[in-house]
Amino acid sequence: MGMDFERERNLLVSVSFGTEVYKIKILDLAITAMNELANMVTENKPLWHPCIDGRRKGMEQQPLQPPNLSCPSHFPALPTAETDTHPLQTEASRETRFLAVHPVHIVELLMNNEQYSPVLSNTVSKAKVLGVLSTQAQGDYNGALQVMAVEFHAPSPLVANRKCHLARYSRQLNNDAWGVVDVSLESLSPNPLMRYRRKSSGRLIERFRDGLCKVTWSQLSTGEANLLILADQMMRNFCRNLSFSRKNRRMLISLSDDENINKAIIRFVNEKEGRCPGPALVMAATIRIPPSARKIFYFLQDENSRSKKWDILSHGHIVQQTRSISNGCVPGNRVSVLEMKSPEDPDRAVKTLLQERFSTSACSYVTFTPVEASSINMILNGGDSDNVPVPPSGFSILPDDLTRDEVSLVTIVFQILDSVASAMCFLAHSVYGMYKLITETAKAITTGVVDPYNMG
User: Fold this and answer.
1) How many CA atoms lie within 13 A of 63 on its CB side?
2) 164 and 184 Cβ atoms separated by less than 8 Å
3) Is residue 44's pLDDT more than 50?
4) Which end of the chain is more exposed for a tag (fewer CB within 10 A), N or C?
């Protein structure tokens, strides 16, 4: 924590008061990365090759060649530490999607930190702009260059977050194309303890015929838009619960009596965090099961599977979808309202759930939260969703190996209200109750998706 703070302070001082030499070095790194991006996106071999699954492409692993740059003499010294000699594994990927907005709006999303962190909350835990080296007129991002501290997270709390310091540079490449690149500042401010070194990465944003980036735009009423806003807040809270950050105080629990779940994470959530109606506990665990991620994703989002297969809290009830709204250009990504009813009184809902199913090229999510029926009606009638609590539970699903899709990792997360819990004390019966909920749900999911005759 102390070293991270000092690194950020030193970067901030150098960006704010440093000489032009330091700024020129960062600009040189950014321009080099922008030129590399132009080569990568055009698939000049041998950089990119198809993965085994045929759906993604990976980059040929080349030895990391850091730029021959020396640290400016005025740059503040960083804390020294013993160098970690373990080799780093190279990871690279490339994905293409078509969006229905003007390229400038996408550039603004990436360069405006108030938009960047919230919109990409499924992978970005937090981001901070440490300094701006080059800026243009308001709304013009051509040539804009800024230094940032960004913390990324995987869709599992068992994977440590990755924090890096980078320079983000945007440039208009031609009338119809923009580039936004990130370059690591490790060569200028090396950290021997860093177990994650981000190489140059970037995005090419191109405008197609008729001003399209190939996106489907949905017209929404005010009520539907507010419901999507509420679901977005739920998803952000869920991603925060997945994030393995130092800010999220948590405890690792061994579950040695279960053969598929040997560890779980539990943490305390206060009522001020993520619009929670009161003190709560969050428990998360990851299981590894054979079916494909796509098969598990469809199984978990289906209301019939919920009531008959995996949701032990809704067994014996009828679960019906009463509203469904598309939340993007990817088919199947939707926000739904589910009502849980008793077979004896099918006209009255005993519980109402807000559910979002969201899939990207790397990971899929199914998140849900109980919401009062009166709050749903208020929102759909145009009411404000800001004061509606959304304590999320749900799942993240991704392939165990990115080169195949035969085995999946499913992270199960439950957030349960606990009025007597505190940041320093988790009662044994509360922990045991959540443990039983996690393990029983894991067994139900495994049985439901592994047995082909148990999927109906």
Assistant:
1) 1
2) yes
3) no
4) N
Q: How many angstroms separate the CA atoms of 429 and 418, rounded?
A: 11
CA distance 25 to 19: 11
Side-chain half-sphere exposure of 453, counting CA atoms within 13 A: 0
Q: State the Cα–Cα distance between residues 69 and 44, nearest whole angstrom.
A: 27
d(CA 351, CA 373) in angstroms, rounded, equals 8
What is the CB neighbour count within 10 angstroms for residue 318?
A: 16
Q: 71 and 184 in contact (C-beta within 8 Å)?
A: no
DSSP label at residue 14: H
* pTM flag (> 0.85): no
Among candidate residues 66, 67, 58, 122, the one with its CA nearest the CA of residue 90: 58
Return the SS3 of 254.
Answer: strand
The answer to whether the CB of 183 falls within 8 A of the CB of 167 is: yes
CA-to-CA dists, residue 347 to 319, 343, 351, angstroms: 12, 9, 12
**Interval 220-232: pLDDT, tens:** 556 788 898 899 9
Per the listing, tokens 């439901």 go with 448
Residue type, 305: S
Going 15 to 21 to 25 to 27, the CA torsion angle's sign is: positive
DSSP label at residue 259 = S
Give φ, ψ of 287 to 5 degrees: -115, 155
Q: Could you tell me where the DSSP H helices lie in 79-188?
A: 103-111, 113-119
What percentage of the chain carries pLDDT values higher than 90? 24
In this structure, is the dihedral angle defined by the CA atoms of residues 433, 434, 435 and 440, taken in order, positive or negative?
positive
Instruction: Give the residue with greater pLDDT, 9 vs 294.
Output: 294
**232-265 pLDDT, tens digit each:** 999 999 988 887 666 656 777 776 555 567 678 8
Q: What sign does the dihedral 168-169-174-175 (CA atoms) show?
A: positive
> Which run of H or of E encompasses 222?
helix 222-242
> Rounded to an integer, what distance in angstroms lies between the CA atom of residue 393 and that of residue 282?
9
Residue 260: half-sphere exposure toward Cβ, Cα within 13 Å: 20
| H or E element that contains 447 | helix 428-450
Residues in the chain: 456
Query: How far is Cα 152 from Cα 347, in angstroms, rounded to an integer?
Result: 45
DSSP β-bridge partners for residue 335 = 325, 356
Partnered with residue 99 across adjacent β-strands are 213
Burial class (CB in 10 A: 0-12, 13-18, 19+), 418: buried
Label residue 4 exposed, middle or buried (CB < 10 Å: 0-12, 13-18, 19+): middle
